[in-house]
Amino acid sequence: MDKNKNLFSQAFPENSDNRDVIEDTLGCLLGRLSLLDSVVNQRCHQMKERLQQILNFQNDLKVLCTSLADSKYMLLQKLANVFEQPVAEQIEAIQQAEDGLKELDAGIAELKKRGDKLQIEQPALQELSKLQDMYDELMMTIGSRRSGLNQNLALKSQYERALQDLADLLETGQEKMAGDQKMIVSSKEEVQQLLDKHKEYFQGLESHMILTETLFRKIISFAVLQETQLHAEVMAQASAVLKGAHKRGVELEYILETWSHLDEDQQELRRQLEVVESSIPSVGLVEESEDRLMDRITLYQHLKSSLNEYQPKLYQVLDDGKRLLISISCSDLESQLNQLGEQWLNSTNKVSKELHRLETILKHWTRYQSESAALTHWLQSAKDRLEFWTQQSVTVPQELEMVRDHLNAFLEFSKEVDAKSSLKSSVLSTGNQLLRLKKVDTAALRSELSHIDGQWTDLLTNIPTVQEKLHQLQMDKLPSRHAISEVMTWISLMENVIQKDEEDIKNAIGYKAINEYLQKYKGFQIDINCKQLTVDFVNQSVLQISTQDVESKRSDKTDFAEQLGAMNKSWQILQGLVAEKIQLLEGLLESWSEYENNVQGMKTWFETQEKRLKQQHRVGDQASVQNAMKDCQDLEDLIKAKEKEVEKIEQNGLALIQDKKEEVSGAVVSTLQELKQTWAHLDHMAGQLKVLLRSVHDQWSQHKAASDEINSCLLEARYSLSRFRLLIGSLEAVQVQVDNLQNLQDDLEKQEKSLQKFDSVTNQLLKQCHPPVTETLTSTLKEVTMRWNNLLEEVAEQLQASRALLQLWQRHRDYSAQCASGVQQQAGRTQELLKAAASKDIADDEVATWVHDCNDLLRGLGTVKDSLFVLHELGEQLKQQVDASAAAAIHSDQLSLSQHLCALEQALCKQQSVLQAGVLDYETFTKSLEALEAWIVEAEEILQGQDPSHSSDLSTIQERMEELKARVVSSNSQVAVAAPDADWKVQLFFICSSRDGKQVA
């Protein structure tokens, strides 16, 4: 500058016009050169410092690489050493390793900052990138190990919580199971609630058990021995509790089902009882005539038949209720059963009592009507005949033969009256019994009985009077000697008859024959009573003989006295004989009556029991068979007791025919033999019936056992089916459900022999029983068979549905895992892509590649989104078949995947927008830079043009300066567009200025 300044001074004189301009220009140029020198010195100093910093950076990078390699080796060795240790120790080792790597992380971060600040070259940056990759890989290894351990810890923590919850559930379940076996309930609805709560609680326990087992399988690889043992103990305890809960549930199901059937049967019996009670007449008969009695008896027979028809069902209901009350305590149910039994018993007793009363009344009434009509008719006839004899006794004297005929006829009438006394007694006895039984029409009956009794009394009162009058008429016409002669003749005749009857009476057999002889001798007694009047009259006639007659007939007196004495003696003898015969015959008649009544009673009893035994062959239900067995045993005991009575009858019969001829005693012997044979036959029948009933009872017992077995099987299977249906909360639960249903189906197929056994036993009973029991057995067999087939079909359908649900669960889980894996892969690629985009070293030409990769990744995310849509459809199908908690978990998992995928998509789209904006800016910058380069070329061409430096023309110089200034302004605008940084402007300005300075120089 000094040299040039001197040159300028020499070239331009001091007084020259351009001297000041030149000095100013040279001063300005000197200032700019000083400034440029200062800048160059500063830049050199900076370059030296930068070089030292780069060397330090490279040294630190090498040291950090060595330290990272050493740390990686030591870390991997330490992790390998603690691999078999508990998870807590492994996590502690990982934590220590991470703490040790924090310094390396800080060093790498520091190197990155220094590298960014120093703007080091690409090889160094690559080394730093490799170091970062090594660190990231190591941290990824540690993170993966920590993630796995954390996942194991989370699983273990989840398992421990599940195990503790299961233990709590087990404790509560044991408390529930340890309660009193006899429940106190008030209704079957309460039992239904208990059953629902029981199912709900223990289904939750089973589901939690399945969850705990599933979690344990996930941690079994790193579980210690004590945990495995504890798990096995808790699972065994849970299985035992579930087994007991299943048994209790079946009991509750049995109680509920039995109670339901019991209520239905009770309602049916009560309806039947109401029908019977409403059919029982509230008032008695207004008129107890034979027709009314028959109608009322028919009604009560129908009511009794209706009650008897439902009697077995009542016994069954009461027996079922009694067995039900063993398991539960329900005062209302007990009261209902007692009330039903009492009402049924009262109605049965009322109907039976009234029916017996009506039948007795009808029997007595029929007998009374028949006998009273006959007696009344006879009494009227006797009254008429008595009036006739009375008139005859007071009429004018008649011929002796006529009077004698009248007296003989009247004696026959007296004998007829004596024979009718038994009929009169029967009528009065039957009438009095009717008075005790009848509730209406008693006054008329009592009046009628009184009238009959009065007629009979009048008859008996008038007979002796009429007899005396007729006898008096006879005596008036019959001399005493002649009378004595007739009496003696009659006595002789009677003696002959008595003597003749002596042997016949000894050989007389039977009540009828003895009664005939008794009636004959009672007739003799009546004849004697009548003849007694003759005897008395003859004896009195002796006192009435006058003295004159005595003196005139003294010789006849002696003869008359002798005849009279002989007559009186014979008379007394005859009276004694007749009285003795009557007494003997009455004794024989009583003995024969007792014997024949006993024989007839025994025969009647045998016939009745034989009919009962034949009726017992009509086998009924089990209760009827049990009652029949009891009756048969009682009858057998009675038959054994009757043997002694038969022997006693035999003794009496043999005593009665003792010393009698064989031809007359054969009938009695035959009767006795027949009686013994009948007893033996009846005893044999009872024995056979007992064997039959015992066999049928055994068949009924087998039927009851088979019925209980098949019903228990059906009940337990149905309860199991209802319980298994609740296991839908997870894939594992559904798998357990499928296994349980398969086992249930297999068990039912094995237990089908129970149904076959029930069918066989029922068919055997059908051969022994009679309607309506056969109809009930057939209906029960059909019902059980239908229930069995329906259950098999239901189990098969449920198994098929459960398998379909299991497949759906499996598809959902597999597809969910596939989708989660896809999301995870896309998340990894997204992180890598975003990491690459976030790097400051990304080259301009790599941006387009990044955008292309981003588009590919977004298309991959779209594919995963389509997969999530399919997963959503599977989830919707699954949610319709699972419980609320499982549906919520499915929805939560799907929502998490969708949100994660959406977040990845949003991050990629955002970064893509940023990079695309950068590409657009880069393209704009490139265009501006090209324009700037064109301008520089143009500027260089202008600067290369000849400057008017040697020209003294100021205007020419000023024009040149203005052109250069305009070009500088243009350069500033171009640089502002291409690089808006102020430093670029300054540098470009100095470049342009230096170029201009050189050009000026």
From TrEMBL:
<dbReference type="InterPro" id="IPR002017">
    <property type="entry name" value="Spectrin_repeat"/>
</dbReference>
<feature type="coiled-coil region">
    <location>
        <begin position="94"/>
        <end position="121"/>
    </location>
</feature>
<keyword id="KW-0597">Phosphoprotein</keyword>
<dbReference type="Pfam" id="PF00435">
    <property type="entry name" value="Spectrin"/>
</dbReference>
<protein>
    <submittedName>
        <fullName>Nesprin-1</fullName>
    </submittedName>
</protein>
<keyword id="KW-0539">Nucleus</keyword>
<dbReference type="InterPro" id="IPR018159">
    <property type="entry name" value="Spectrin/alpha-actinin"/>
</dbReference>
<keyword id="KW-0677">Repeat</keyword>
<keyword id="KW-0472">Membrane</keyword>
<feature type="coiled-coil region">
    <location>
        <begin position="625"/>
        <end position="652"/>
    </location>
</feature>
<keyword id="KW-0175">Coiled coil</keyword>
<dbReference type="GO" id="GO:0031965">
    <property type="term" value="C:nuclear membrane"/>
</dbReference>
<feature type="coiled-coil region">
    <location>
        <begin position="731"/>
        <end position="761"/>
    </location>
</feature>
